[in-house]
Amino acid sequence: MRMLANVADPVEVNVRAGFYAYVFKKNESAVAAIWTTEQKPYSVSIELPVAVECCDLMGNTRSLPAGAAELKMSESPIFLVCKADAQALAAAIQKTIFPSRPPVKAEARLSDLSTLTFHLVNQTQQPVEAEIELDPLKGAQVSPTSRKATVPASERTTVDFQIAGAPSAPLRARVKANGQIIPISEDLSI
Question: For the whole model, what pTM was predicted?
Fold first, then answer.
């Protein structure tokens, strides 16, 4: 198996930390090599622009039609070969969805007696639009009850809410980002 023989013009596709993708031109075709450095395998979803042949290191192949395809990622690369332009394949890989990997990590803490601070960490290589929604908090008033934020690629952002009173139950909130919902439950006891 020589998936990368005679390839040219490599393009690195940065989607998120620990996920690697390179797309090459090969004659009239495009070849992508994708893998993860995470030890635990996980699935991703890629919207393929055209049908592809998917091949692993052992030479096992399967045909995937154009459209949404679920791929199992591991430390062993898989190769996607298609008759599309290499840039079209790279653009599709750039939009990879990680259903089991939220785009942001989030936690909430009281910064002081009147400020509730959410710490958002972007786990992707692209800016993420996030929205924080809070459930009513027993024993306290939080204002506002939702707030939007842009988290730069691979960086962290803080989002503050004003709080009055002493919470007598855990905070329940959600962070919506890239079509995923990340639940938050934090004990705000002082």
Answer: 0.67
